[in-house]
Amino acid sequence: MEKTMLQQVMTAPGEIRFDRVPVPQAGPGQVLVRIKRIGICGSDIHVYHGKHPYTSYPVTQGHEVSGRIAALGEGVEGLTVGQRVTIEPQVFCGKCYPCTHGKYNLCESLKVMGFQTTGTASEYFAVDQSKITPLPEGMSYDEGAMIEPLAVTVHAARRAGDVRGLRVCVLGCGPIGILLIQSLKALGAEKVLATDVSDYRLGLAKQCGADEVVNTRDVDFGKALLDAFGPDKADVIYDCAGNDITIIGTDPGVTAALNGGTHMPFEDVALYRAMPGATVIDVTDPTLLISVLSQCVDRPGVKYIRVGRKQYAKVYEEGSELPIGRAVTLREGTDIAIFAAGIMVHEAMQAAKALEAQGVSAAVIDMFTIKPLDEEAVETWAKKCGAVLAAENHNRYGGLWSAVSEVLAQKCLVPAGYVAVEDEFGEVGPQGYLQERFGLTAARIVEQARAVVARK
Description:
Elements (H helix, E strand, L loop, with lengths): L3 E9 L2 E8 L7 E10 L2 H7 L15 E9 L11 E4 L2 E2 L5 H4 L10 E2 L11 E5 L3 E3 L6 H4 L2 H13 L7 E5 L3 H12 L4 E6 L2 H9 L4 E4 L5 H9 L6 E4 L6 E5 L17 H6 L5 E4 L3 H11 L6 E5 L20 E4 L4 E5 L3 H14 L4 E5 L2 E3 L3 H11 L2 E8 L4 H12 L4 E6 L9 H7 L4 H13 L2
Parallel strand pairs: 10-11, 10-13, 11-12, 14-16, 15-16, 18-19, 18-21, 21-22
Antiparallel strand pairs: 1-2, 3-4, 3-8, 4-5, 5-9, 6-7, 15-20, 17-19
Helix pairs in contact: 4-5, 10-14, 11-12
């Protein structure tokens, strides 16, 4: 056996080198595996681009793997040199509450090879026998490297219970979606409908066992369900489209109006701001909505867009390009900068006119992208005006006011205030009444702006 081997190391996003290092020894209870195949997972791509929130560098990747046993450590039984195997990539403690109750995937100190601990991307890899699963006779190395993602889809199929005779829809025909289609058919599903927006992927899904495939760019999803399954539609639907999705939150905050308090989210922005890599937008008018939707098509991660279904005041000219993450200055001013989003932009513009009549020069900045916030704009206007006000149709905790305050605390401490919903739930009523009830009005902005300016 060789004394040295090649090992892949990603030193930084987009930077990979191959080092020559000593071949590891199989310690007591360990197995030395000669690595033959490694699959590239979507998570590996995220690491490559620096977008994986739980991976630091340098890191050796590789967690979908197959190989041949090269040596056995002391005490290893039931395995033989030359045997084809795959490796379970989760590293767990075995002692915490989840581990001792069969939930090792929730281990309090869970690590995954290739992310938080060394992966298998080397010519040899030493690992505990407990992580080894022998491959069936005749299974190729290529197939063996697919065991890990296949285990994901078999588990997902079994989460629905006995799928025999069921009609199932699978949304998304990436590798996991296609493996799920195969798993469902193997477990006895009567009919599987696959949907995607890529004809190429739908073709693969059909080759791999989907009974019907539909491109939902061309066919309405509801119609596709009716055509495939009849009026009862699907028994089970699986979402395998990944996390690069756009979520539309309709009628946010007080715009829910007569739908009532249970339909009135004052905390939605806070929830999505806390999601790693998310984009959070509060739409100002239809032109802005059209612009951000086109940008969201190829934007990675979760995109959450707040948009009303009622009449919006026109702010932007049709065809305007409004880049996500960049604030828009709608009105210049020198005494206070008002950062507003959504329906509060119109209220802020009305307030700025009233303030001008009272001798206060107010700038109005549309902060429609609440995450990632345009921190440069916040800092620039805070320094220019020496006073800041945030106006939002949201709870004062976790939304625009919180985002602006975080920037001010780090970069420019100036007098600041907010116009937002205090820490309470919504109620039923017309939008005009609700704006008055929760203080989301131009008059309230004027009042708060004057109070902030007085503290300069």
